[in-house]
Amino acid sequence: MPRVLTEGAVLQCSHGGQTRLTAGEPTLTVQGHGVVTAGAEVGFRFGAADLPVPGMLTPCPVRTPDGSSPLPCTIAAPATPAGLSTKLTAGGKPVLLDTATGITVSSPAPGNWSVADAGQSTLEAI
Q: How many Å apart are CA 123 and CA 98, to the nearest integer?
């Protein structure tokens, strides 16, 4: 059964960038960390070596076509339905599961993101 994402979960872009989520929904917590709800991922940036973001573990290496500037992945749209719980909500929104995936904006072509670590191993949901 999929695990629920919490603050501290690690997302990964298709270029290898990894960033730890630094916020969660405080109305439902697991081991003291707020769960992550649907839509919270939109606009999330992975960061680059010369453009770090909070929680960045591994920078996204994507750069502008001429290589002069970083252009790290940004999550462009909500997670696909397979990554949302159909039974568990927080703040009126479905929670994200470790099966969540989606599309990122990057150049020269869009990429995708997935969950590398749910941030906890206690709470599972469907």
A: 11
Distances (CA, A) of 113 to 1, 110, 122: 20, 10, 23
Q: How far apart are CA 98 and CA 22, in angstroms?
A: 16
DSSP-assigned letter for residue 81: G
CA distance 64 to 30: 39
Query: Angle CA(74)–CA(80)–CA(84) in degrees, nearest 5?
Result: 110
60-80 tens-digit pLDDT: 999 988 889 999 999 999 999
Number of residues that make up the chain: 126
Sequence-separated contacts (24+) of 112-115 with Cβ below 8 Å: 112/13, 112/14, 113/11, 113/12, 113/13, 113/14, 113/41, 113/46, 113/73, 113/75, 114/11, 114/12, 115/5, 115/9, 115/10, 115/11, 115/12, 115/83
Calpha distance 60→123 (Å, rounded): 29
pTM over 0.90: yes
